[in-house]
Amino acid sequence: MKKFVLFTIIFLFFFVGIAGIAEAERDTRCAAWLSDNSTIHIDSLHVGKEYFWADFRPVDSPEGKEGLFFELCPDYRYSEKVDDNCSAWDPETQTIHISSLLVGKVYYWIDLVWRKDLKLFQLTDWCSHELEIFGYALNAVDGFGDWRENLAKTAKFSNFAMIASDGTSVREIAAGDAEKISKALGLGMNRTMVVVTDVLFIGDFDESGVFTNVRLRSDYRERLQRYSSYLHLYRGKNPWAFYVLDEPYLAAIVEGMSIGKMREMLNKAIAAIKEVFPNSKTANGIAVTRSDLEQENILGFPVPENAAEEYGFPKFDLIAVYCYWAQYKPGHPNDRLEDLKKVFQEKYLGNAKDNLLPGQKIILVPGTFHFLGQEISPEDYLDLANFYWNIAKTDPQVVGIVPFLWPSSENLIGLKDLPKNVRDVWREMGKKIKNY
């Protein structure tokens, strides 16, 4: 491959091509990609007890090798800038970890591993600073195993807790949520997202357990105020975010409700939450199934060409994008996973991003479960984990990964009961997001 071609395709396309999406929030930088001379410049590289000013430039991939490779430019020298949090050489792993690399207007951390056999550094991993959330859906929810055990077993590689409590009154719900919030925060899981559906909405359950006939309660504002009072009475901190209503547009279609009416209901709920909890975010989820794709319902509802103008999303801060194709693949043996991944990235996720309102961000919700009696190969699970990681770590519009789900239930086998190598790849992903 010609010099810089691979680098340009991967590094510039993924990094610089999307760098203008997010405004830089930091006034200083310790390292930056300098496009004018195609180098990674580091102001303060910590090596042993010394600090260096150094540049790295991309080179041709060695014959038979894939990836991005760099050489250290010969004009490195001692740096007057001493910054232990910038970048450092780890002699044990032979890695330079750059904690904050500015590319355009987006910050990333990256790892450059010394390849002694090639006498070059190889870019082995990177991640946008925007990706800051990792944890499992329903990990602190009544009815999905022991929520205390779920949190305790995942806290070392998670900073997110999804909370929901059973209760016949607002007080009971708030008391349960307060306990779960306190437990999560005590374990270092500071991204607490509370499901507030039962406080704001009312509906019916059909024979299969699906929530139907959804409508906003007439006293939803008053109930939310009482929820806040009880939450603080039980010494619960305000949640980082509220999950308002799951797959609302899909629910509207099933019930024959207009999209406009559902969107109006959601925006009323969001406004009420912002009034009582002005510093908390709001979120909801959209889903896609195989039948949705066949019908072009790629946002959980039919999407015309003027979707952004006619529908758009409600005013949520966060949009959770679900995709559980691996879970449906056994019933469709002719479907190729590669084709499904392409459809997800180009159509489903692409349309979701096209419809985002200013300031909205995306959380990816990959399926990490299978139905009882079903079998999904570990290879497919690992393939999809790598696929989602590569999307999330590169795209600054993606701020979190929340796999569904960790605990097992009556009909679902969750990640905690999947093969160890599948659990391990998600655990390592969580550590990178939480610790870096």
The name of the CATH topology of the largest domain is: TIM Barrel
Tell me the radius of gyration: 23 Å
Question: What share of residues are in beta strands?
Answer: 25-35%
Instruction: Please state the average pLDDT score.
Output: 85
Shape: globular
How many domains make up the coordinates? 2
- How helical, in percent, are the residues? 25-40%
> Which stretches are low in confidence, meaning pLDDT under 50 for 5 or more residues running?
1-28, 288-310
Global structural class: alpha/beta
CATH-defined superfamily of the largest domain: Glycosidases
Number of H/I helices: 13
> How many strands in all?
22
**Terminus-to-terminus distance:** 33 Å
Q: Which CATH class of the largest domain is shown?
A: Alpha Beta
Largest sheet geometry: 9 strands, mixed
What CATH architecture label of the largest domain applies? Answer: Alpha-Beta Barrel
Describe the overall structure.
By secondary structure, the chain is an alpha/beta fold. The protein folds into 2 domains: 124 residues, no CATH class; 303 residues, Alpha-Beta Barrel (TIM Barrel). Helices cover 34% and strands 27% of the residues. The chain is built from 13 helices and 22 strands. The strands form 4 sheets. Strands 1, 2, 3, 4, 5, 6, 7, 8 and 9 form a 9-stranded mixed β-sheet that branches. A 9-stranded parallel β-sheet has the order 10-21-19-18-17-16-13-12-11. A hairpin with a 4-residue loop joins strand 1 and strand 2. Helix 3 packs across helix 5, helix 5 runs parallel beside helix 7 and helix 12 packs parallel to helix 13. The longest helix has 18 residues. It is globular. The two termini are 33 Å apart. The N terminus is likely disordered.
